Amino acid sequence: MAIFFRGVTSDFQIDENLRSLESMHETTREEDLLQKLLQALGKFNLPLDKLCGVATDGAPATVGKRKGMVALLKEMDARGIRHDTLVFFHCIFHEQSLCAKSVKFNHVVSVDTDCINFIKKRDLNNRIFKQVLKDLNADYDDLLYFCAVRWTSCGNMLGRFHSLLPEIIEFRNLKKCPLTELEDENWLCDVGFMVDVTKHLNDLNVQFKDQINYCTRCFPRSNLSRQC
Questions:
Q1: Range of 194's domain?
Q2: What are 161-215's pLDDT values in tens digits?
Q3: Helices 185-218 & 92-102 angle (0-180, nearest 10)
Q4: Do residues 28 and 84 share a domain?
């Protein structure tokens, strides 16, 4: 169980870091999660009356209306938790992951992928395309493949494709196989939208990676790997 703490220091600086990794050896019930959270708060001497917000993922054990960890926290008024002002919300990283899966612009990604495969799968086409990029003084010297298992792959692929769009049109015209979508204004608007969205998601993912790197400095690597 990864626990992040976000708060304001005595110097009025916002501090947000991964503070604790709690091992869940047996059950992962609502009571177990709450106990681990309270132990982490006690370990860092954080009083419950200072708690003003909780962010969780969408697991039933955390957000269940009756017995979820959030519901159990709401019943702890006697421990100093301010039930009336305590805010509960969904983890932003989990939300952006769901958003990325829900925004399905297949008509954009499929065309981009087909264009890239047309160029890169044949050595001759790839060499000619690279020469076109060199002759036109393009910003990049090649395209990028899309790999579904890598976080930033789709955004990087779309961004590179969008930047080299004039050169791609020039190459396809040279090969006498023009593509109507590459000159369709509505489709190009969708491409630009997807480039902006995926870049934003990539930035969030990179920030999350930075948080994990911070964790490796706070915890010994052996303990971290064992607890993960």
A1: 104-206
A2: 999 999 999 888 888 888 888 888 999 998 998 888 888 878 877 776 665 555 5
A3: 150
A4: yes
